[in-house]
What we know:
The complex is a heterodimer.
Chain A: E1 2-6, H1 7-17, E2 22-25, H2 32-43, E3 51-54, H3 58-70, E4 75-79, H4 81-86, H5 88-97, E5 102-107, H6 121-125, E6 132-135, H7 139-156, E7 160-165, E8 173-177, H8 181-187, E9 204-205, H9 214-243, E10 251-254, E11 261-265, H10 269-282, E12 287-292, E13 294-296, H11 300-306, E14 312-317, H12 328-335, E15 342-347, H13 357-368, E16 375-377, H14 382-394, H15 401-409
Parallel strand pairs in A: 2-3, 2-4, 4-5, 5-7, 6-7, 11-12, 11-14, 14-15, 15-16
Antiparallel strand pairs in A: 1-8, 6-13, 10-12
Helix pairs in contact in A: 1-2, 1-7, 3-5, 7-9, 8-9, 10-13, 11-12, 14-15
Chain B: H1 50-65, E1 70-74, H2 78-83, E2 95-97, H3 103-116, E3 123-129, H4 130-135, H5 138-146, E4 152-157, H6 198-204, E5 209-214, H7 218-228, E6 235-240, H8 244-247, H9 254-263, E7 270-273, E8 276-280, H10 289-293, H11 309-326
Bound molecules: thiamine diphosphate (TPP), iron/sulfur cluster and magnesium ion.
Amino acid sequence: MLKQMEGSKAVAEAVALCRPEVICAYPISPQTHIVEGLGELVKSGELKNCEYINVESEFAAMSVAIGASAGGARSYTATASQGLLFMAEAVYNASGLGLPIVMTVANRAIGAPINIWNDHSDSLSQRDCGWLQLFAETNQEALDLHIQAFKLAEELSMPVMVCMDGFILTHAYERVDMPTQAQVDQFLPPYEPRQVLDPNDPVSIGAMVGPEAFMEVRYLAHAKQMQALERIPQLGTEFKQIFGRESGGLTRSYRADDAETIVIAMGSVLGTIKDTVDAMRDAGHKIGVLGITSYRPFPIEQVRAALKSCKRFVVLEKSLAVGLGGIVATDVRMAVTGMGLKGYTVIAGLGGRAITVTSLTGIFEKAMRENLELVNFLDLDWKAVNKQLEREKQTRRSGPIAEALLRDVGAAGTRNY
Amino acid sequence: MSDLQPVKFYQTGTFTVGNRLLAPEERSVQANMQRTNSLNSGHRACQGCGEALGARYAIDAAMNATNRQLIAANATGCLEVFSTPYPETSWQIPWIHSLFGNAAAVATGLSAAMKVKGKKDVRVVAQGGDGGTTDIGFGCLSGMFERNDDVLYICYDNEAYMNTGVQRSSATPPAARTATTMPLGSEPGAPFGQGKFVPAIAMAHEIPYVATATVADLRDLEAKVTKAMSFRGARYIHILVPCPLGWGTASHDTIRMARLAKETGMFPVFEAEYGELKSALAIRRQLPVEEYLRPQKRFAHLFGKTPAVETIARIQAQADKNIRRYGLMAKEAAL
Lengths: 417, 335
Ligand SMILES: Cc1ncc(C[n+]2csc(CCOP(=O)(O)OP(=O)(O)O)c2C)c(N)n1
Ligand code: SF4
Ligand SMILES: [Mg+2]
């Protein structure tokens, strides 16, 4: 059914359609509306047979989900930013134990300085935690990916993060096609755990493993993700059969067939990039787009295939590997090893910095002229940065960095959050 | 007690009544041939480990009380490490270890899963050491209490982080030597005026049941676990479990040390329901704290050439305060 609704509300409804049995809720912007929405559905009785638990921290949220999942219940939670870091130890534990928990990450920057706006630093900080990470481009895709995530997680017995851009998607009102309960039930069978704590068939879960088997256990986590590379496209096909629309998959190309330059990105910024590319195509430039939906597992083969006839690529990412450059870009470069392509990294949109068509056009044109650095920072205020560097050179007691910068730029950003 | 047994028989040196003299229904869980051996032989605990003893009695009693419908969540620590060296396990019950600081929350999740799956008779126990309970797991523990989740949490208190080599926790008593509170300087050992007594904090949550116990009185421990399982909601049992390695005591002295802790007033043994004290185990004959401290190498620095009379007096004052606060002298204890 077509509905005009907030992204968070749409995700809450979609999760509810997946019949979760235990939901752990702990608030953090911009995730709040999702868990609030689910709380309402449980309280009103619309979502039946579900325990909704208001926990005391994100660490507890993931830990309760671990217990619930090991007890055989379909378990869900949602978080962002500081919350994801606060639960990090349990995040690794959930995948180490092979528990198919689904979690929404409403992507948000990580402090300090504290910042509630969108970038991808939070989930990318958990890059190697063993969870699968799927990135939504639109609210429709966010909704659809959750339904696919439960199926994928439970088939593999591995946890899945569905990442959606904080505010840009979570708080945007858009038209979405909300599936029916019958459709979701047809797609997603009841949870059949691979391992469960049951007094009638007792097992020990979480034993100490030494050097004799630890590598094998870790390899098996990797093997599961390799299986997911096969399964994710198939799930997209099965999804289309029941729901009638394309959603998910590993990667998606746009106007890339004859492109000499291909821009690679994840999440909602793909919309802005496609608009930019449309305009540049109209102006005669051979430019296209590759969207990455599955960040983990990373679709090396698909990326190689998508880039096989271009001349150069630009990875535009909302994350920064401090001291190196790009995080996604590093993965892409590894994927294209030996292909002889020119590649550029553009760090953009950190902490919610707007990414505009004008700026994108400028930087893509530079790329096409091979006139870019290896690592670039879109719309960075070099004046402010240089002023601060100079201040630090001159004065030992230069004071807190963020405050000095805010004073310099005279920002409306001096408001408190 | 049945009518036929007005006379009490005590085994020499213990206050335990012989099982053979009791009616079958009054015998201990451990005396029963059908006991579950939940924590089975073959584990790697040190000889004389109080934690292994406490866990065996507590979990067997909980199994007995729930008709064997029990799941356990375990924090990282000695109990976890010595019971599950890959690829072996000593647990005869469904058991999960997740992390050091989240046993209470994992148990909450299990309990929610049992509820939603309609398995109302399957009950959940969480267990951890003092470090996993009073320090790193305290947030999750308090959350579980406050929500009144249907979990029995058992803390095995050996008064330090034993698994990592005897470091101080917030349950380490003043003056005790640990690897991070060495007997050096002007205040040797753990400082005075620090630490917390989590049973009292558990009571402040007004949860249905809170009890303390020691491995010196295993019938009392069994009875308390059994009683705890008769409640729904959050329950807490804090068991003093001497650790020969960390305390520097002989492995055959574990039970004696636990008894001395109780008989000196160093460790109050009591029960509380919904935040109110209900009963306490009486001290039969109060002993000076010195008798408890002297056999333990962690307190050896108090008994050097010039005994630390003042420090011992401060410890005695604490024991006296416990006796007053929890009404531990025989007469008062009939609460
Ligand atoms: C987050 C985290 N911090 C520290 C540790 C290291 N660690 C493992 S067991 C342990 C000590 C456990 O002490 P306690 O809970 O008192 O149990 P005991 O071993 O004394 O029975 C510590 C510090 C860990 N595993 N995880
Ligand atoms: S160190 Fe102490 S608690 Fe740990 S196994 Fe040995 S005796 Fe038991
Ligand atoms: Mg300890």
